[in-house]
Specification:
mainly beta
Length: 334
């Protein structure tokens, strides 16, 4: 593992209270558009002992998503190639495996590309922000298997990413996108309002990173200050987005629009409600947050005269801290 990947992927937590560390993998079958999300957390509460836990969500071709949780258990020190381990659930430099309830996964991935620094690398390495994220494997190709009850799904050529988060907890509001744009091009977005005093009254700050033809843009990973974020169906502006894809009833729409450098940029997300799962988090300070996630989103992108559309295999999430979501549907009735 080279120095850049080691910086992006190696565990950051050193026993401090009030910290949250996450590794996650999201992947989709480009043919059937089935998807998987595997999420691993180390939580160090402001009061009480630290613990490790996580979940796996299967997004089938047809039917609602299914989530199963693993842990919580005492934190195990990372060893060997593993970045995180709780029970038999583990994630490391080229492997993610484990089981939770009716779900079992055995995944391996390869990515010839370098990490994608969604936030400035210096902010990640020196803890300059309340929280930060980096994509360790932004153009990963997955093989392996997923078992759901007694049915085994073989993976070959699934596409996605493996990412790492470290900080003091979830934002007040946030949105996230990972979109495979094809031919090795990829988009990563984190847009959020911090819950820390002095920052919580500001509009969402967008960190937008493209990798196109092997080059990262914009350079440096600074926030896109001229990008406006509209999180939620009622806020999204439709006038320009309608030229990309007309909105459909029953979908959760959100978008970013503005300029990066001299280029006009529009990024529009549709998270169909029947393809989403809503999950509850607990932050280190004891506050709760709810996210709505899918690996089957539609993502439409405009950068100047260039256009991309990712239909049914975009990875996207919106979240809210401190309030209950209208529907928390992680446990789908059997």
């Amino acid at each position: 593992m080279d120095d850049e990947l080691r910086s992006a992927a190696a565990p950051r937590w050193r026993g401090q209270a009030g910290r949250l560390e996450v590794w996650y993998a999201t992947l989709s079958d480009p043919i059937t558009r089935a998807g998987l999300w595997v999420h691993h957390e180390t939580v160090a509460p402001t009061q009480g002992p630290p613990y490790a836990h996580g979940w796996s969500t299967w997004f089938p071709v047809d039917g609602p998503p299914r989530t199963e949780r693993f842990g919580p258990e005492p934190v195990e020190p990372a060893s060997g190639p593993d970045w995180f381990r709780v029970g038999d659930a583990r994630i490391g430099c080229d492997e993610c495996a484990g089981h939770a309830g009716s779900l079992r996964w055995e995944l391996r991935w390869k990515d010839a590309g370098r990490p994608l620094w969604t936030f400035p690398r210096a902010a990640w390495e020196h803890g300059l922000l309340p929280g930060a994220q980096v994509v360790c494997a932004p153009t990963a190709q997955f093989t392996g298997s997923i078992s759901v009850d007694d049915t085994v799904h073989r993976l070959d050529g699934w596409r996605g990413g493996v990412a790492h988060i470290y900080g003091r907890g979830n934002a007040k509001r946030w949105g996230w996108i990972h979109a495979d744009l094809g031919n090795g091009d990829v988009l990563e977005v984190v847009t959020a309002v911090s819950h820390t005093p002095g920052l919580r009254r500001l509009p969402p700050m967008a960190f937008v990173r493209f990798r196109i033809e092997g080059k990262d843009w914009p350079a440096g990973g600074l926030p896109a200050l001229r990008m406006r974020t509209a999180l939620g169906r009622s806020q999204a502006r439709r006038s320009r987005a309608q030229r990309v894809a007309p909105p459909a009833l029953g979908r959760s729409h959100w978008q970013l629009e503005g300029r990066i450098g001299r280029q006009p940029v529009l990024i529009r997300v549709d998270q169909p409600e029947n393809r989403c799962v809503s999950l509850v988090y607990t932050d280190p300070d004891g506050a709760t947050a709810v996210c709505t996630n899918t690996e089957q989103a539609d993502v439409h992108v405009e950068v100047g005269d260039r256009r991309w559309s990712v239909i049914g295999s975009g990875h996207a999430e919106v979240g809210l801290r401190g309030q209950a979501a209208p529907v928390v549907n992680e446990r789908i009735p059997r």
